[in-house]
Amino acid sequence: MNRKELNPGRSPQAAFGARLRSTREARSWTQEDLAERTGYSSKHISAAETGRKPPTLRFSRNLDLAFGFEGTSEAFERAYRELRNGVLLEGFPEYVEYEAQAVEIRLYQIGIIPGLLQTPEYAQVLADAAVQRGAIESELAEERVAFVAQRQHAIARPRGPIVIVVLDESCIRRLVGGRKVMEGQLDKLIEFAERPNTVLQIAPFAIGERRAINLPVNLLTMADRSLMAYAESQMQGHFDRHIPSVVPQLTAYHQLQAVSASQAESVAMIHELRKGTP
Fold first, then answer.
1. CA 246, CA 8: separation in Å to the nearest integer?
2. Per-residue pLDDT tens over the stretch 99-131
């Protein structure tokens, strides 16, 4: 029988797999034994142990049920969440924690609707596309959609934050998921703009070089009036609480708002696009 040597220091995912194997073997269970106790195949167990398949929340919880680790410091769910935070772009897990407590949230997005404004259907299409590209497993896609809903729920609290959103025109013109999904998403944007604690503006293509920000950015104002920023590129994220570098981002955001369409103009633009959704 071939037994692959594991290197837990190679990555957090490898460490998870190595711990899974050692925990299983400490109980003298075979992979088939653990498979029967968790409802997964022995092939899945083997792939998780060798780091070929990333763990998911459901898999981790099933492991805890099998090993009796629920709610303990040894829980595989806890290890999974630590690993998952490591998979997210640097700074984003910390940003999300503060986002749920902020009194004001300012967002600028290019290309896609930001998570806080996505419909479940729109979020699902994006997650499914990532699965088709081989970027993530299907279970991770489910968790990604649930994570979007979790963030939306966190800010939908009594006396929730003021949420100000500027969308590049590409966000509303990029067809995601076909006509039905896009119609529902545009409707949600219109509904968002009608709330008493929100502002929605479109930064039209026509502003050209006057667009003051060229990457997506999130700005938070906390109850003590402290400022925080999170910005990201395709492969890197950065959470910033350093005022001298956050304030210029806020200034650029105000400059972007000044050249963007007003909320009334933006909603009219969405209505017009909604009528002609291909």
1. 38
2. 989 999 999 999 999 999 999 999 999 999 988
